[in-house]
């Protein structure tokens, strides 16, 4: 009798394992494009990870009429080797256009290069959400933006309010740390808000920190730790001879500016490194106005990718550009969007930038296989930066 019971137990165990294996195989999905993973089934929720093309995930829950049929809850391995759960949407959320709807070319109503279209019929797909309160949509295979009716601003400092930006008549002081609905806006990051049932205008422009030297020194310390001390001169490295992230070409240009003869970048001094970091990277990405964590991430990104690519990564992480409109400069849109952020959003942005860096590295390798040998080290740098800053 005991033998029969034992056999039945083993048989039941095998059946459960076969069923589990079959279900896992049935629910496995191969991702065909780089895909953000969200905390909830909404593009407005926090991004918790990024899945690269050809990675497999396990589908835990498929969307329905209530949650959105295009959303799926999945189990995936993130870029740091940890299993996580979250929601993905690979096709976008379709919306039928039933009345004239204005679509903006950029997420900024006061942009000097803004173009608008107002279709009355058809469909568009919501494919993302910017950190500045705009839905990113796809219409006729082009990227547009639609403002969220709940767009808000949070003031980081007590701010003087005015009856109008043109008259500059003061109306009072608006307290920091409170979120206000945006009723209207004007160029120069002016926003119309309601305070105590009174409509007033405030300007939200970030200013350089008073302790910027200390933040810069700490950021430099972090970048130097990530870079290491040795000279890099790998034959497949596109940057050529490099030390502390500074290429021979950049160093030669620097020596020209200060009217000194060229020498090997291997002989670069610590003071020269700091001078190049501050004047060629830190200032260019406006890091003196950023939270310490974001400033460090942006300095490292500019050193590692170049300031032009750092701008693109910054814009992608903000969610303010589509494939058609990435700028290799700071620009009007980037400046407006950055000034719109609260300090807490800046730290969230720092995390997103690291995800975008990793996505960019995979793209580099997919386009140029000669760079594959660098991928592990590149990703290790991103992971170490995230850990160092406790992001």
From TrEMBL:
Keywords: Signal. The keyword Signal applies. The keyword Signal applies. Residues 221-306 form the TtsA-like Glycoside hydrolase family domain. Residues 1-24 form the signal peptide. Residues 309-381 form the Peptidoglycan binding domain. SUPFAM superfamilies: Lysozyme-like. This is Uncharacterized protein. It comes from Gottfriedia endophytica.
